[in-house]
Specification:
- The protein is mainly alpha-helical.
- The protein contains 14 helices and no strands.
- The chain has one domain: ABC transporter involved in vitamin B12 uptake, BtuC (Orthogonal Bundle), CATH 1.10.3470.
- Helix 1 packs antiparallel against helix 13 and helix 5 packs antiparallel against helix 6.
- GO terms for molecular function: transmembrane transporter activity.
- It is found in: Cell membrane.
- Its main location: membrane.
- It is a multi-pass membrane protein.
Length: 362
C-alpha cells in the first residue's frame, strides 16, 4: 500500500469515527435508554437473518449508483443524473416486460439491457451539451432528472397503468421477469451477483483498458490529455453515458428483484445515495461495495433503532453529513500527511548521502 492510499484510508476511517462518535453523543443526549438504543443501532442489523438480508438488499442499488457516479467523477464529469437514469431504466424495463412475452432468463436479461440503454439515453443529453457547447453537466443533469421523472410517469400512466390496482401502478410483472430470491426468509435476490459482477467489469474497464486509461487521464488533467492526443470530447461523452447505463441497469435490477409491479411515483433517491458512496470510496470501484454495505448497514440499524427506541432514524442523516464533510475536507490530517512526506524525503536524502559517501570512500 503506497503512502497516498494509506493516508486516504486513515482519513476516511477518522471521518467515520468522528461521525459515529457524534451519533453516540446524540443518542446519549436524547434517549432515556441510550445503551439499548446504541445496541439496536450497532447490532440490530445482525441480530437475525431477516435484518441482515435487509442490509444486503439495500446495498444492491447503492452499488450500482455508486459505480455509476464513480465512473463519471473519475473523468471529472460532475454529472448527477444517476437518479434520473436509475428511475428511467426501471421505466424502460417495465415497458419491455409488459410488452414482450419472452421465456425465463431471456426476459430479465433483455429488461436489464433495455434499462441500461434507457439510463444511458438519459445521460446522453448532458454529455453532448458538455462536449459540444461547454454547458455545465452539473446543471443539465440535475434538470434532466426531473425530465426523465415526468416522462417516465407519462409512459407508465398512459401505456402500462393497471386501472384495477386501486392506486397508480403498472400491471403486474410476469413471473418470468422477476429475479430469483436466493436467501430463504429474506428478499435478497440474484441482483447481488449482478452488482458484484459489475464491480469487476467497471474495475477492468477503468484500469485494464485503453478507454479507461483515457478516462482517468482526462480526470487527472484534461489539458495534458489533449496534448497527449486523447480525444477528450469522446471521453466526456462515453464516461457520462456509461455511468447512466450502469444507473439504469441498477434501477432495472432493483425493480425486478424487489417489486411485483412498477409503483415508483417519486424519485427513489438511490442516485443521490450513490454520490455519497462514490465520495466515500474515492471513486474506486473495488471500494464501492464496501461503502454501499456500510451505508446500508447504518440505515437499517437506524430504522431498527427508531422502531424500538425513542431515538429518531434521522440520526443517520447527521452521520452521513458529517462523514461527507470530513472526507471531502482537504485539510483534514493535512499536517500529519505533510510530516509523513517530509520524514520520508529526509530518510531518502540520508540514504543517498550515506550511499554517496560510501562510493567516494571506495
Amino acid at each position: 500500500m503506497n503512502k497516498r492510499v494509506l493516508f486516504e484510508t486513515i482519513r476516511t476511517l477518522v471521518a467515520i469515527g468522528v461521525a459515529l462518535l457524534l451519533a453516540l453523543i446524540i443518542i446519549f443526549s436524547v434517549s432515556d435508554e441510550p445503551g439499548y438504543a446504541l445496541e439496536r443501532f450497532l447490532l440490530g442489523p445482525v441480530t437475525n437473518l431477516r435484518n441482515f438480508g435487509n442490509v444486503l438488499e439495500m446495498a444492491i442499488p447503492l452499488i450500482f449508483t455508486g459505480l455509476a457516479i464513480s465512473v463519471m467523477f473519475m473523468a471529472k464529469q460532475f454529472n448527477l443524473g444517476a437518479e434520473g437514469g436509475f428511475f428511467f431504466g426501471a421505466v424502460g424495463a417495465t415497458a419491455l416486460v409488459l410488452t414482450f412475452n419472452l421465456p425465463p432468463v431471456i426476459l430479465p436479461v433483455a429488461a436489464i439491457i433495455v434499462g441500461a440503454l434507457a439510463g444511458g439515453l438519459g445521460s446522453a443529453l448532458p454529455a453532448v451539451l458538455k462536449a459540444r457547447m461547454g454547458a455545465s453537466e452539473l446543471v443539465s443533469s440535475l434538470m434532466m432528472n426531473f425530465i426523465l421523472f415526468w416522462l417516465g410517469l407519462f409512459i407508465i400512466n398512459n401505456y402500462f397503468r393497471d386501472a384495477m390496482a386501486g392506486a397508480m401502478a403498472s400491471h403486474r410483472f410476469p413471473d418470468a421477469a422477476k429475479l430469483t430470491r436466493i436467501l430463504p426468509g429474506t428478499r435478497l435476490h440474484f441482483g447481488i451477483f449482478i452488482a458484484l459482477a459489475m464491480v469487476v467489469v467497471v474495475y477492468l474497464f477503468l484500469y485494464r483498458s485503453r478507454w479507461g486509461y483515457a478516462l482517468r487521464m482526462v480526470g487527472l488533467n484534461i489539458r495534458f490529455a489533449e496534448y497527449s492526443g486523447i480525444n477528450t470530447k469522446s471521453v466526456i461523452l462515453y464516461s457520462q453515458i456509461i455511468g447512466g447505463m450502469i444507473a439504469g441497469m441498477g434501477g432495472t435490477v432493483e425493480l425486478l428483484g424487489m417489486y411485483p409491479r412498477f409503483t415508483w411515483f417519486q424519485l427513489p433517491g438511490y442516485g443521490w445515495d450513490g454520490v455519497i458512496v462514490a465520495i466515500m470510496a474515492r471513486n474506486n470501484p473495488l471500494l464501492v461495495p464496501v461503502f454501499a454495505f456500510f451505508l446500508a448497514y447504518l440505515r437499517i440499524g437506524a430504522d431498527i433503532m427508531a422502531r424500538v427506541t425513542d431515538v429518531p432514524s434521522e440520526v443517520v442523516a447527521i452521520i452521513q453529513g458529517v462523514m461527507i464533510m470530513l472526507v471531502t475536507a482537504e485539510r483534514l490530517l493535512a499536517g500529519w500527511r505533510h510530516r509523513m512526506v517530509v520524514k520520508e524525503k529526509m530518510k531518502a536524502a540520508e540514504a543517498a548521502e550515506v550511499e554517496g559517501g560510501g562510493v567516494q570512500h571506495g
